[in-house]
């Protein structure tokens, strides 16, 4: 366990360590056990973040041909499907110079372009590969300075996460083109609890895969509501990307990747914020939903009473009822056009957008003028 914490929103949250750190630690320990033919109880490694980890080892096994052990993943207080899973490393000497990586059970294989690892390779990301390689090189160097006998030219490293086949179903991996298990991840070696950076990286990665496949027209939804509604419209879910609350970040990345058209489908409660120029839609950042809804009602001729009732509404569904009862002309199509204008301005007009607004209670509320045409192009056939 890593006994370091950070305070967020008044709560003390504990850091964890990545599957990459687990794999590097297990590999270093397995190599030492192979070289010395002795069992180890713990192992110490350095992380790219600069922190040292002293990790407990499990399942130690070694002989004259190979060695292996495992480290239990600790995600700290970050919600992480791999928390508590064992990460195994088996190291085998070889006459081929360097380090060869092999995907054991529960570690995926890359089958799609657009990722940081080539197609056909084990889904062990670049930083964990560097960590593992560095630990092997340093361990071998220290062993050689001790005047020991000549060592093998290279090493085969097989990383396994036995629970990974099932756990991968709860990750982005199947959609990203990583088959057979989990990815071995981590850029700092450390898991920061509730890390915004990590979430943004995973969202961007999914978009980069579609970009690498040559898709130029995609679908953005803030979350699962948008995904479910898109499915009800018979849209192609392979082209769908969740933005979470980071609408501005994802728009910026979409522009950088040169996407041409985006169909933005969202629950009114999220996209009404975008209509007000709010591009991080988390409630802790800003919540002007009723103010924005009321302002546009006023623009379309709502009475002072209707505006006051909208302002007093506790939910957007309640506000929708008020707006519908007021029979404001084309209100939600108007609001969709406002959202379209805001997101188009965010990317300096470099992407064409269409917008669809819905609510859980009322279903489809409104859409921008050419949304129907783009919807048809992005449907499954």
The level of helicity is: 25-40%
Text of the CATH class of the largest domain: Alpha Beta
For the report, how would you describe the main beta sheet?
Answer: 5 strands, mixed
How widely separated are the two ends?
Answer: 50 Å
Strand fraction: 15-25%
Number of helices: 13
Number of domains: 2
Low-confidence stretches: none
Classified in CATH, the superfamily of the largest domain is CbiD-like
- From the spread of the alpha carbons, the general shape counts as elongated
Helix/strand-derived category reads alpha/beta
Number of strands: 20
CATH architecture of the largest domain: 2-Layer Sandwich
- Compute the CA-based radius of gyration: 26 Å
Stated plainly, the CATH topology of the largest domain is called: CbiD-like
Strand order in the largest sheet: 6-7-8-12-9
Mean pLDDT score, rounded? Answer: 92
Structure commentary:
The structure is a single chain. With 381 residues, this protein is α/β, with parallel strands linked by helices. The protein folds into 2 domains: 5-191, CbiD-like, CATH 3.30.2110; 196-377, no CATH class. Helices cover 38% and strands 24% of the residues. The protein has 13 helices and 20 strands. The strands form 7 sheets. The chain has a 5-stranded mixed sheet. Strands 17-16-18-19-20 form a 5-stranded mixed sheet, with helices on both faces. Strands 1-2 form a two-stranded antiparallel sheet.
Keywords:
alpha/beta, 381 residues, CbiD-like, 5-stranded mixed beta sheet
